[in-house]
């Protein structure tokens, strides 16, 4: 397997497909998944002549199941370790959900200062802040995330089935076209990872205030989300992101779910390509 060892001794697994001189795209996955969640995008963009790279977050997928560092700062540093190891330049970084938070922190703290980023894409992403606070009245109550933690600790396997077969892909909506393969693949990715990393990752994706990260990003950034996202409410996510970004473009899809990259790849992929080539 291809791995890079971080400064704190964590092995991060990554995929690197395509010609080394092709324009690179780096994909950042959501919680509690792995780089496999990007198969549909990686194959598509590989076919369009790009070099496609994706890593498994620490504690997720095939990366080390370490005890510590399950926070946005370490997530971003780990992504930077992969980028620097491969010496990627002029990269387009695409992040989904928690991966969108990872992209925002990486671009602001590492990518832009190092001059390695060309563009960014936030898909159904968690910034600026998911949890409800006095300063973020439209956020999700902390009790919801406490419920996630309780369900994960009690029966992670059943919790992951419930998430994938219900709100994540909108399979709980009337008339939804349910794919058992998609549900099973989500469950598979989740169960490969570490319960501790996933448990602590809930705090990372829900309680990390990334307002300043978004304000610091100057590269062209596409913000995109479905307005039927039951995981990350779009009014408190994408609509706020584009207001904080200096060079943001917003595209909201009517009726699309949180996992729209999978359920509507035939629409999303060409739109991402248009932004990247634009």
Describe, in plain words, how this protein is organized in 3D.
By secondary structure, the protein is of the alpha/beta class. Helices cover 44% and strands 16% of the residues. The chain has an 8-stranded mixed β-sheet with strand order 1-2-4-3-5-6-7-8, with helices on both faces. Helix 4 crosses helix 6 (195-207).
Sheet with the most strands, sense and barrel status: 8 strands, mixed
CATH topology: Rossmann fold
The total of helices stands at 10
> Care to count the β-strands?
8
Q: Strand content of the residues, in percent?
A: 15-25%
Mean of residue pLDDT? Answer: 98
For the record, the count of structural domains works out to 1
Helix content: 40-55%
How would you name the CATH homologous superfamily? Alpha/Beta hydrolase fold, catalytic domain
Structure classification: alpha/beta
Distance N terminus to C terminus? 34 Å
Q: What is the CATH class designation?
A: Alpha Beta
The geometry reads as globular
Helix and strand pattern:
EEEHEHEHEHHHHEHEHH
- Residue stretches low in confidence (pLDDT < 50, at least 5 long) are none
């Amino acid at each position: 397997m291809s791995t890079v060892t971080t400064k704190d001794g964590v092995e991060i697994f990554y995929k690197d497909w395509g010609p080394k001189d092709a324009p690179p795209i780096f994909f950042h996955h959501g919680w509690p998944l792995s780089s496999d969640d990007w198969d549909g995008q990686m194959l598509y963009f590989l076919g369009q002549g790009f070099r496609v790279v994706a890593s498994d977050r620490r504690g997720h997928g095939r990366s080390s199941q370490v005890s510590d560092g399950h926070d946005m700062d370490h997530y971003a540093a780990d992504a930077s370790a992969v980028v620097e190891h491969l010496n990627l330049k002029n990269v387009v970084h695409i992040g989904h959900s928690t991966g969108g938070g990872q992209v925002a922190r990486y671009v602001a703290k590492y990518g832009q200062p190092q001059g390695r980023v060309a563009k960014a894409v936030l898909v159904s992403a968690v910034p600026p802040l998911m949890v409800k606070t006095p300063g973020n009245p439209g956020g999700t109550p902390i009790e919801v995330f406490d419920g996630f933690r309780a369900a994960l600790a009690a029966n992670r396997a059943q919790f992951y089935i419930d998430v994938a077969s219900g709100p994540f892909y909108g399979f709980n909506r009337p008339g939804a076209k349910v794919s058992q393969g998609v549900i099973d693949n989500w469950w598979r990715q989740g169960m490969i990872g570490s319960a501790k990393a996933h448990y602590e990752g809930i705090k990372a994706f829900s309680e990390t205030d990334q307002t300043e990260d978004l304000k610091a990003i100057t590269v062209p950034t596409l913000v995109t989300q479905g307005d039927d996202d039951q995981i990350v409410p779009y009014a408190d996510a994408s609509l706020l992101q584009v207001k904080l970004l200096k060079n943001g473009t917003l595209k909201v899809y009517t009726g699309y779910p949180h996992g729209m990259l999978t359920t509507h790849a035939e629409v999303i992929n060409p739109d991402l390509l248009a932004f990247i080539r634009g």
